[in-house]
Design a protein that fits this description.
The structure holds two protein chains of two kinds.
Chain A: H1 12-20, E1 25-26, H2 27-37, H3 46-59, E2 62-65, E3 74-77, H4 79-103
Antiparallel strand pairs in A: 1-3, 2-3
Chain B: E1 4-7, H1 14-26, E2 29-34, E3 38-43, E4 49-55, H2 61-73, E5 77-81, H3 86-97, H4 101-112, E6 115-121, H5 133-160, H6 165-199
Helix pairs in contact in B: 3-4, 5-6
Classes of the chains: A mainly alpha, B alpha+beta.
Amino acid sequence: MRDNVKGGALTEVTFFILLALYEPKHGYAIMQFIEEKTDGRLTLGAGTLYGAINSLLEKEWIEPFGDADGRKKEYVITSKGKEVAAAELQRLKDLTEIASGIIGG
Amino acid sequence: MNNIVKARYYAGFIDAQRNWLNKMASKGYRLVKCGRLFYEFETCEPSEYIYQIEYIGDKSKTDGKDYASFLEDMGYKIFFKNVNLDFDIGNVLWRKLADKGSKFADYQTVMERALLIVEKKNDGTPFELHTTNNDKANYYAKFLIPYFMLFLLFTVIGAISLADIKMMLIWYAVALVFLAGFFVNLVRYFRDKKRSGIEE
């Protein structure tokens, strides 16, 4: 994952995973959430999702949810993750404002 | 309805192995079991299933299992497969590097399960495990050292067999095949790394 290397921008995949996990979800549900919200434009391979989840767990932007004994592992966003997501939303708002000013619309 | 068993040897070449499994699936054969060289199939609807193969030789046993169970949770069926190269690398390269037998043994268990064959019910959409450019680049990078080591290994074996010109040429040919594998993945790595810089 290449987040926070260039001026704090998140990758689209990272941002979508964070958004998906405002409600606890397991891997497959995250994948479905992203496909649904983007009308299939962004489809996520399971290997890419696995890598992204592990990297977000490491950063403590998300955490395991519930006791996963024998059931599918679920994850949920942390308060740290929510801060990052809020900052990204602000960044995107600023960006759209600048872009609208120039391109129009 | 009898199961069929086929033997195949793919050395380290994962793409060829995946293409073969997908060809079998398109003919209506579904993998039920695989051993070191043998693959057992049962009949299914043609193209009912689709396969991907993932190299996990860089992961520890625990991490490999964790990844496999993640994929199972995604609804895929998983087979662990050896790479069929463990004997060579294990004996020639790693035994010398490992201080104790235990490390060697651990390495062997990892290599026994270095490939994951992943089966998905075919829903008409492409089946890719790695989808972002950056992640694809990282995946290709995992092959660089193993392929280069194999190239070196067979070059050395070739040099040792100098007395027998025919054998030497065979070993050098094998070495070149792995060198080609190295470069293919190197090119893929740089291509996707470059794309990830532009698009992500």
